[in-house]
Amino acid sequence: MKSVEENKKKYVKSNMSQITKKLPPVWDSLFQAFEPITPGLSRSYDKLLQLFTMLNKQKDLFNTILSNMKDMIFIMDKENKIMYMNKAASDEYGASLGKNCYRVICNQEMLCQQNGMENVFKGQTVQLERTIKGKVYDSLVAPFVYGDKDLYKMEVLRDITGRKQLQNELEKLSITDKLTGMYNRRYFDDVLEKEVVRTRRLRHDLSLLFIDIDKFKHFNDVYGHAMGDKVLQCLANLIQTHIRKGIDVPCRYGGEEFTIMLPETSNGRALIVANRILKGFRNMKLRIPRKNESVKKTISIGIAGINQQSNLSIKSLLVHADKAMYKAKKLGGNRICG
């Protein structure tokens, strides 16, 4: 029985013979000269075949991994034309090979010029956060060389919309009073410090209102803390209706005390706002279901401010507003002092 090696030699010799028949006679002597080394060529072919098979398996594995990734992957040339996109990207944007990536993604061809994206082909890796069609993505863009000199870039887009929403909710909870929905004291103190610096730099006015519910402890003792919470919520809602959204900063400062920062507002203008809140709360009827009756409550308000002539520190500003509020309370409440 012939050995495997003998069969290989026969196979190679047979194939070489078939090849030489198709070539001019001059090649016959050349192949005869190389015939002694054909077994070595056969072994090299076997190794090459094994390597090719292994590479094919790795390619299949790599393609399977890319196809099952939820992240969108784009490979682009220097003109941002898409050379490759994985299944997640194709499912989202369709067949877009050869098209400008940034026109496909968000119809903004010049987006690649922003946030340092133009530096990717200079060898830099860029990571940024971008919003596309209402979704938030974490984007990683990196350069790579294919072949000897061809330079490409790969962008990976990961949908972080859910994570971003959760992050925003947690941030909001960290700066918000749960009962009233207003900002908490920690956030207010931080914003006040920054706003005072800005006010002085621009030589603007800034006013502060301190608000306290009159005889609130007695109300809680008589009607209970649940009703007391409703009073706090009613006052918070009223304050929101009389301030500038996104400009003024309302805060539950502690207990039944509220404060409002009014940027670029003189004491005269702050007095108008304070009067509206004072009268609005005084005229509000609070129904007590348990006793089938309605009651009214009042508040005391103190005003302090910074203008071009004053040089109050933040601490002094808070103290002045607080003292003005307690002066209003000592005078019987339901009034404004400054």
CATH superfamily caption of the largest domain: Reverse transcriptase/Diguanylate cyclase domain
Supply the number of structural domains: 3
Task: Give, in order, the helices and strands.
Answer: HHHEEHHEEEHHEHHEEHEEEHE
- The overall strand count is 12
* Overall residue-averaged pLDDT value: 82
Radius of gyration: 38 Å
What is the class of the largest domain in the CATH system?
A: Alpha Beta
What is the percentage of strand-forming residues? 15-25%
Largest sheet: 5 strands, antiparallel
CATH architecture assignment of the largest domain: 2-Layer Sandwich
Helicity level: 40-55%
How is the largest sheet built, in terms of strand order?
2-1-5-4-3
Q: Helix segment count? A: 11
Give a description of the structure.
There is one protein chain. The protein has 338 residues and is of the alpha+beta class. It has three domains: 4-67; 70-163, Beta-Lactamase; 176-337, 2-Layer Sandwich (Alpha-Beta Plaits), CATH 3.30.70.270. It has eleven helices and twelve strands. The strands form three sheets. Strands 2-1-5-4-3 form a five-stranded antiparallel sheet. Strands 7-8-6-11-12 form a five-stranded mixed sheet, with helices on both faces. Helix 8 packs across helix 9 (225-241). The longest helix is centred in the N-terminal third of the chain and has 31 residues, at 38-68. The mean pLDDT is 82.
